[in-house]
Amino acid sequence: MAKILPRVLPWLPSAKDETDQLTRVLGREDTLALLTMLDRDPVTNIFLRAQLDQHRTAAPDSFAQILAPVDREGLDNACWVGANIVPTAMDCQYAQAYARRALATRQRFASVFGPRDAVMAMEPILGCGPQQIFDVRPNQPLMSIEDLSDIEPAPSLRPATSKDFDLVLPASAAMFEEELGYSPLDNGGGHYRSRVRAMLRHGHTFIDVDHYGEIIFKADLGTVTAKATQIQGVWINPRYRGRGLAAGYMAAVVNHALTFAPLVSLYVNDYNEPAIRTYERVGFRQIGTFATILF
């Protein structure tokens, strides 16, 4: 019985009442206040800011909603609840209230990511939900750079185009599988294919190709706003690893990214020490810490 009760707890009336007293769903009239809050930290809040750029409103739709505190003077935190849960920085009380409210939607979530303290405060609540937690990454340095790198950029790195889709997709899938342990193309991978196509269409993927026609290096600007970009999907072909190429390629990615926005960011698993050293060589500096929960 002791093991069953925690799974039921998030849906008990008392838990729901407490959550409703602390949180609310934002509406169209909250859009300006949300924009103002997010722009105070454009690197940490880049995902939510990009969603707001796309949807043009804080109001919910059939896929996602944005939660915020009830009766707070000014808006100082918020949480995206859609296919993923993405909190801003907040204290434990609000993080757990948002987690309970997310569970009450009975949606399935792929992940939770964002500022470490908020994400880790959500873990015990979400761990009582119907989805099994697959992995927790509690310490991911959030890094940024705002100047051209002192490292000589790889001159052959170029923006990929839609014509490169058949070349980029296997590299992107290989990176994903190395990172998460399974292929995004299982069961067709329609959503993943669409995302790869969208990044190519917008010029947000950068590649270098050898004379055999194979990708040597790939990286994406996974999230782009007017104030910041976030590099994701960094991958080097295994046959080219260990040759000291990463820093030059990353410097070139930074140079391209700075044409989109004045701040370039990324976050990385703390156990990936070679990558962290490379990013530091390029000029990235840690400005915070993220965490990720995977389902």
Short summary of the structure?
This protein has about 300 residues and is α+β, with helices and mostly antiparallel strands. The chain contains ten helices and twelve strands.
Structure notes:
- With 295 residues, the chain is an alpha+beta fold.
- The protein has two domains: 5-133, Aminopeptidase, CATH 3.40.630; 158-288, Gcn5-related N-acetyltransferase (GNAT) (Aminopeptidase, 3-Layer(aba) Sandwich), CATH 3.40.630.30.
- 36% of the residues lie in helices and 24% in strands.
- The chain is built from ten helices and twelve strands.
- Strands 1-2-3-4-5-12-6-11-10-9-8-7 form a twelve-stranded mixed beta sheet.
- α2 (13-22) crosses α5 (92-104) and α9 packs across α10.
How many domains? The number is 2
| Structural class assignment | alpha+beta
Give the number of helices. Answer: 10
Report on the biggest sheet: 12 strands, mixed
Task: List segments where confidence is low: pLDDT < 50 over at least 5 consecutive residues.
Answer: 1-14
Name the average pLDDT. Answer: 93
Rg result: 20 Å
Could you give the order of strands across the largest sheet?
A: 1-2-3-4-5-12-6-11-10-9-8-7
Characterize the quaternary organization of these chains: single chain
The ordered H/E elements are: HHEHHEEEHEHEEHHEEEHEHE
Report helical residue fraction.
25-40%
CATH class of the largest domain: Alpha Beta
Write out the CATH superfamily name of the largest domain: Gcn5-related N-acetyltransferase (GNAT)
Strand content: 15-25%
Number of strands: 12
What spatial form do the alpha-carbon principal axes imply?
globular
Distance between the termini: 25 Å
Instruction: Determine the CATH topology of the largest domain.
Output: Aminopeptidase
- Can you tell me the CATH architecture of the largest domain? 3-Layer(aba) Sandwich
